[in-house]
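hey team, just a heads up i'm posting the complex here instead of the shared drive bc the drive is being weird again. everything in one block, sequence lines first with there labels, then the predicted structure for the whole assembly after. its two chains so it's a bit long, scroll down
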Amino acid sequence: KNEVEQSPQNLTAQEGEFITINCSYSVGISALHWLQQHPGGGIVSLFMLSSGKKKHGRLIATINIQEKHSSLHITASHPRDSAVYICAVVFSGTYKYIFGTGTRLKVLA
Amino acid sequence: DTAVSQTPKYLVTQMGNDKSIKCEQNLGHDTMYWYKQDSKKFLKIMFSYNNKELIINETVPNRFSPKSPDKAHLNLHINSLELGDSAVYFCASSQAGSSTDTQYFGPGTRLTVL
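-- predicted structure starts here --
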């Protein structure tokens, strides 16, 4: 069992839909990152969270430290949001980054 | 200007060869990383350097040796390449190496070992 679990693994949505991607982890963390990997392979950091909620444009990321869970939401999804979304955590007291297996999102026009 | 650059973008080589991948960042960051993404698209950290000093060294075969000539460069040298080394290798950098820093990724180097 991976220390960082993401769900769903694959997601197909229609343009305009509200999308939620989930990330759960097993032990205490110092930070959680959400990354986006484009179809061409490039990786972009979207958010870093240690508590609460962050918003950037149509993207919202939340984290619940007690429940060891984070969600990434996309409002008014668009085909250009099609990508793999990856959650990465840094466990407390370490520099170690552990990645989830990613969620492949496809948004249809 | 590209913030984090890697060369080459593609590398095809025979088993047993030695090869290097170069990474440079022009962001003035103190920390640089190497990641491996396997055929199943799973990312794993390999190494991290802060101000030219090794701070993360995951369980990676010692055929892999990172070299940081200065804090703007972190090169990855691989000896005696094996089929299982085929993957995409990403370099990244962050301001100070804190777990809360945003990381900036290079475009990746696709290594194919024949």
